[in-house]
DNA sequence: TCGATACAAGACTAAAAACATCTTATATGT
DNA sequence: ACATATAAGATGTTTTTAGTCTTGTATCGA
């Protein structure tokens, strides 16, 4: 009953990009270092985010990732489900046919309700809100100026 | 982001017992067969439920399990957390120290809220309600009379 | 145009968790 | 005493998670 590491990393990535604004290109290395995510793992996560239409990936020298949408139009639910698939607290929530009594199961109804409620809460939260509040989801210290010359360089 | 099988099985076990009422002794074999849970797996789950004070286990010939509390005083949250531990949607919810920025992380606050909400929903649901509604969480067909001579026998 | 840089894509591996079973011991009713 | 029932934990299998590695492709700029 917990988020996977990949999901957490996906949120960090999108949040980092959101703080830089829609359309700003940021290198994978910078994101990886600043959000404390293994670079190759981030690559895989980014690909899923790209497939979901949340970010765009630019190849080549000076390549990187950038947000395709305004941060306020990206929800936590979107990002998480792009990475780990649709949230389902119990197997019978996403696949009622997996349990033959699901149609008349009172427990099933509770799970459905809880699941829907959880998804709604995550859908209410957008990345503009997350990024604008005073706190931030990044690891290393120099954050304010957004331009650390040591970043983006080997 | 899902319940484990053990958690699901624990709920089935308690619900089956709840339908028989507090204090009624039911053999492990009967519960296992009727709720479609592997008998040895059920044994382990039952031990956790016993440690949590939800059921009592009687050894010896004609042994079995029985509910210690009135079904209306047992919540889904209790049963689930007796099996899988405290619900925690993200690692930082149960162990804020696992992420050094949790104190000032906006994402962390969303998880906390969602987690609390989920636990509240499960806490609202008790087994008297679950057992009294027309549907039931059991697998085999003969349920009404509660006395199937083929059960409890080898 | 060539080399350096940066990401793509998927194969591969290690570790952990989930799921289940097996074995030996203990308790109880007849 | 014996049959029956669970206790407790060791063991085993499978699946998922987490992370790395390798080979290939795209872009920039000297
Ligand atoms: S018994 Fe009810 S809650 Fe359990 S898996 Fe089946 S439908 Fe879902
Ligand atoms: S960055 Fe925030 S949400 Fe992510 S683990 Fe740390 S505290 Fe939790």
Q: Could you tell me the number of beta strands of chain A?
A: 2
What's the N-to-C terminus distance of chain A? 39 Å
Radius of gyration computed on alpha carbons of chain A:
18 Å
Largest beta-sheet details of chain A:
2 strands, antiparallel
Beta-strand content of chain A? 5-15%
Assembly form of the protein: homodimer
Classify the fold: give the CATH topology of one domain in chain A: Arc Repressor Mutant, subunit A
The CATH architecture of one domain in chain A is Orthogonal Bundle
> In what order do the strands lie side by side in the largest sheet of chain A?
1-2
Bound molecules: iron/sulfur cluster
Q: What is the number of helical segments of chain A per DSSP (H or I, 4+ residues)?
A: 7
The assigned structural class of chain A equals mainly alpha
Which of globular, elongated, flat, extended, rod-shaped describes the shape of chain A? elongated
Order of helices and strands of chain A: HHHEEHHHH
For the record, the CATH class of one domain in chain A is Mainly Alpha
Q: Kindly state the mean pLDDT of chain A as a whole number?
A: 87
């Amino acid at each position: 009953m917990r988020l996977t590491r990949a999901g957490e990393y996906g949120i960090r990535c999108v949040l980092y990009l959101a703080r830089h604004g829609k359309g700003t290109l940021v290198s994978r290395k910078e994101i990886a270092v600043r959000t404390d995510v293994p670079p190759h793992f981030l690559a895989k996560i980014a690909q899923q985010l790209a497939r979901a239409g949340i970010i765009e990936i630019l190849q080549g020298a000076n390549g990187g990732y950038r947000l395709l949408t305004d941060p306020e139009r990206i929800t936590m639910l979107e990002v998480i489900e792009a990475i780990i698939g649709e949230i389902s607290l119990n197997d019978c929530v996403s696949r009622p046919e997996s349990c033959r009594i699901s149609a008349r199961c009172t427990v099933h109804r509770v799970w459905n309700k809880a699941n829907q409620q959880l998804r709604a809460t995550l859908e209410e939260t957008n990345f503009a809100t997350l990024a604008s509040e005073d706190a931030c989801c990044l690891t290393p210290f120099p954050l304010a100026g957004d331009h650390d010359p040591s970043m983006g360089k080997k």
